[in-house]
Amino acid sequence: MLAALCDDDKFITEKLKNLLLTYAKENRIIIEIDEFQSGEGLLNSEIDYDIIVLDYQLGNTDGLTVAKELRKRNVLSCIIFLTSYPHFMIDAFEVNTFRFLLKPIDKSKLFKAIDDYVKIIDANYPITIIQNKELKKINSNEICFIEADGKYSNIHLSDKIMHCSKTLSGVTKLLPAYCFVKTHRSYVVNLHYVKSYSSDTVYLSNGEAAYLSKNYQKSFRTSYMNFLEKNYVRL
Fold first, then answer.
1. Cα separation, 77 vs 207, whole angstroms
2. By CB atoms within 10 Å of each CB, which of 5, 66, 137, 219 scores lowest?
3. What is the pLDDT of residues 108-157, one digit of tens each?
4. The whole model's pTM is what?
5. Domain covering 127-231 assigned CATH 1.10.3210.10 in the classification
6. Helices 10-27 and 107-121 sit at what angle, rounded to 10 degrees?
7. Backbone Cα Rg of the chain
8. What pLDDT digit, counting tens, does each position of 165-224 carry?
9. For domain 2-122, is the CATH number 3.40.50.2300?
């Protein structure tokens, strides 16, 4: 994931960078970060960023003008505005602003914004694996579960199994932490595919099953309940 931080206050961009790096570490995702102190600098970049955290007031160039130009290049990027003046929020909606955060930066609100964005894009969260010395790309939402196979791993999709040269841990580090959870030392499941579970087994919607060991029962149940609470509506 590529992120751009744009604020004419170096202290703000440094704080944002540290917060994003903390988020990336806690959620097992990779975020590459570029910092800009002016709107002109950001506009001169040829990179299409996934996340853009942008100050609403940028010296000679206001953030809204910058956002309009960025939106012409990439309609899917997540634009998060920072400001000390909440009355600007209405104007910001014309560039399809994802979030509007007030200064000083609230860590929990920033993390919540990124959480929501990651959940939206997880269906298009690509990973590259090596199978039989060939590079292949799959999306994270295609994976039902991953099974350790010695120093390698088997990635179970809904309709096939792909043998991967990475370890179970190596593959897991590439995937969003909110929905990929360990159930056994040899199994990691995608919570989107969990159909039901018993004291020792997790049943998946593709018809397969993964072991649930005593050591991971509590952490799995907690993760699954939190996942359901955030992602599904109780009728």
1. 36
2. 137
3. 999 988 888 876 665 556 777 777 777 778 888 889 999 999 999 999 99
4. 0.56
5. no
6. 50
7. 20
8. 889 998 888 887 788 999 999 999 999 899 999 999 999 988 999 999 999 999 999 999
9. yes
